[in-house]
């Protein structure tokens, strides 16, 4: 069974946390669409600005997949 969650918002969903403040999440079950191809999720998910960083989407997906 595939479950999908849309985490929508504008700037409030863009990760701005510092990458070095948290452990990286490596979970092959979590995919993201980048450049038209599905790949394993990596931070930053939203890489639109030089201040891009961690957000809540990755930790949510990791916690959900382990539950």
Automatic annotation (TrEMBL):
Top-level division of the source organism's lineage: Bacteria
InterPro entries membership: SASA (IPR005181), SGNH_hydro_sf (IPR036514)
All residue ranges annotated as the Sialate O-acetylesterase domain in the record: 4-65
SUPFAM superfamilies: SGNH hydrolase
Hydrolase in keyword set: yes
Coiled-coil features, chain-numbered ranges: none
UniProt keyword list: Hydrolase
Molecular functions (GO terms): hydrolase activity
Protein name: Acetylxylan esterase
Higher taxonomy: Bacteria, Bacillati, Bacillota, Bacilli, Bacillales
């Amino acid at each position: 069974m595939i479950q999908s969650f849309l985490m929508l918002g504008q700037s409030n969903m863009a990760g701005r946390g510092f990458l070095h403040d948290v452990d990286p999440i490596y979970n092959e079950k979590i995919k993201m669409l980048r450049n038209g191809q599905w790949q394993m999720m990596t931070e930053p998910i939203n890489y639109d600005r030089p201040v891009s960083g961690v957000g809540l989407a990755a930790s949510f997906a990791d916690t959900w997949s382990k539950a």
